[in-house]
Amino acid sequence: MVSEELLDQFRLSGEKVRVVRDGLEMNDVIGIVVAWDDASVVIRRANRRVVKLSRTYLYEPASQERGSILEGEV
């Protein structure tokens, strides 16, 4: 689960984040962290729509290479 500190850092900086939900890159969500609660995070996408996602997904800066949620993969 992503930490409060990391989410706050993303929100304050306005940096785009990548949310890796599964093994397929086309299913990633890229946007800006808007808000969060105990179980979910609200991301604003480039088309200004918002998406509510689980905090259990992998949250990383969009500028970095895509990570993997599967163990053993890079």
Q: What does this molecule look like?
A:
The protein is mostly beta strands and 74 residues long. The protein has one domain (4-61): SH3 type barrels (Roll). It has one helix spanning 4-13, and strands at 16-20, 29-36, 40-45, 50-54, 58-61. Strands 4-3-2-1-5 form a 5-stranded antiparallel beta sheet. A hairpin with a 4-residue loop joins strand 3 (40-45) and strand 4 (50-54). The chain is globular and about 25 Å long. The model has no long low-confidence stretch (mean pLDDT 92).
Question: What are the SSEs and their pairings?
Answer:
Elements: H1 4-13, E1 16-20, E2 29-36, E3 40-45, E4 50-54, E5 58-61
Antiparallel strand pairs: 1-2, 1-5, 2-3, 3-4
User: What sequence of helices (H) and strands (E) makes up the elements?
Assistant: HEEEEE
Tally of distinct domains: 1
What is the correct CATH architecture? Roll
Radius of gyration: 12 Å
Main β sheet profile: 5 strands, antiparallel
Q: So what's the CATH class?
A: Mainly Beta
CATH topology: SH3 type barrels
* Mean pLDDT across every amino acid position: 92
Q: What fraction of the residues are assigned to beta strands by DSSP?
A: 35-45%
Q: Between the first and last Cα atoms, what is the distance in angstroms? A: 19 Å
Report the count of strand segments: 5
Q: Kindly name the structural category.
A: mainly beta
SS summary, helix count: 1
* Spatial strand order of the main sheet: 4-3-2-1-5
Task: Point out poorly predicted stretches.
Answer: none
Helix content: 10-25%
Shape: globular
